[in-house]
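User: Write out your own:

AI:
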Amino acid sequence: MFSDDIQFPDDKLLTLGHPAILSERMTCGACPEQWEGVLVNGVHFYFRYRFGRAQLGVGTTPDNAAEYAMMHQGVVVSDSLSGMFTDQAVRVRVFAELFGRIYPDHLADDVHFAREFGELVAQIEGDAHE
């Protein structure tokens, strides 16, 4: 089976490295590189890198997070043929940049973060359903 042939580097090297992440996992290693997870407030996220562009979405479910990501342009990281990060530091920096665009005033205080970010997600999802 093809999936048995896929070899990822040591899992300790593969991380998005953001303090707002409670859990994360890489669901595809290349073309696109994809990550799914949950933030400290219980909100799901989806991070994707394909065609040289990285996108991040958030939502109350994994599907909502993926839909949100696909509705936004994201950031150009490399040429249009690129579909995986080859540098861990770039992966971490790009995730942090996109996270900062969605929630620019992230604080270390998890309670404040959960309340404020949860309200933002509810507003975004409410706008999407109108």
